[in-house]
């Protein structure tokens, strides 16, 4: 028995090493795939690592050289190709839920174990470093992108999503200086909420299906997955049409705590942050973010020199008239109007400018209009979706209730 345990432990170590070594052999481009071409192989019920390993270590043994891989995140399938997406009418196209891996090395651990009998559909380019042909930007655009990456001090060794695609959906970086899943004493846990945005990351999420956004946030609040296990939740993606909740742990954001976001679509991105303000604010309050926007009217005050959006928000929270801020590094402007009341106040800003609504102001306004009878106490938080009723997943919440109270237990389907 002990020998078996040791064997599987050693096997798992070699598997991890093999996956890591295969990753260094590819450049990855999120939300792209190859069209108008038949693959040399197709794998089902696999991880992206399995596909990359097969491309390097197995495909040549089967007779076909592998140059690129398209992985479908949603269905865990992949297609292997003997070319880079430009061979014989093939195209590299934008496609959600797909990842396009293009082989960048054939040396050392990246070399084929044997020479493929049928060779490659297209002679490998041993200096591949980006998208082939049409998706490549102009020289000036490429220089601008490179300069932007240098300014943001991106870690070049991370598999970050590239901005070379010319599709309408663009990428944006979002900086959260208090990237955490729980806060220190004296701080309050809150959420940045970015609509039509999706966290772009190589990290595998804790996934929940068939939950509404409120339930998704609840799981993240409690740092628990679908089966009740403790899992630190730092941020999440929520897809409302399919009701898919994806919770993520700590990201590799050491370099200025940047998060990479894909802009467009129906997704909602939520990111936890910690704020310390003089004024009390409810836990897990939501602060809607409008990237690349600004407000130029209804200015309360201008606070120069602030290099943190959280510090700027704290100033807004402590000002009872402040409903939103316009922020970029070194500039903090407080406003007495918010986009949720009047969207017309929003105007186009620079890439670094954003508007953030004061969710605490909205929460306080709602609290003042809500009344409770003395016999009623506040409801507890909803439970996790672990209660079963005729095969359906349910959740419950309760409160202390006197005789003249209507109910002390509520139940609803997840």
UniProtKB/TrEMBL annotation:
<feature type="signal peptide">
    <location>
        <begin position="1"/>
        <end position="21"/>
    </location>
</feature>
<dbReference type="Pfam" id="PF00024">
    <property type="entry name" value="PAN_1"/>
</dbReference>
<protein>
    <recommendedName>
        <fullName>Apple domain-containing protein</fullName>
    </recommendedName>
</protein>
<feature type="domain" description="Apple">
    <location>
        <begin position="183"/>
        <end position="274"/>
    </location>
</feature>
<feature type="domain" description="Apple">
    <location>
        <begin position="281"/>
        <end position="360"/>
    </location>
</feature>
<keyword id="KW-0732">Signal</keyword>
<feature type="domain" description="Apple">
    <location>
        <begin position="25"/>
        <end position="105"/>
    </location>
</feature>
<dbReference type="InterPro" id="IPR003609">
    <property type="entry name" value="Pan_app"/>
</dbReference>
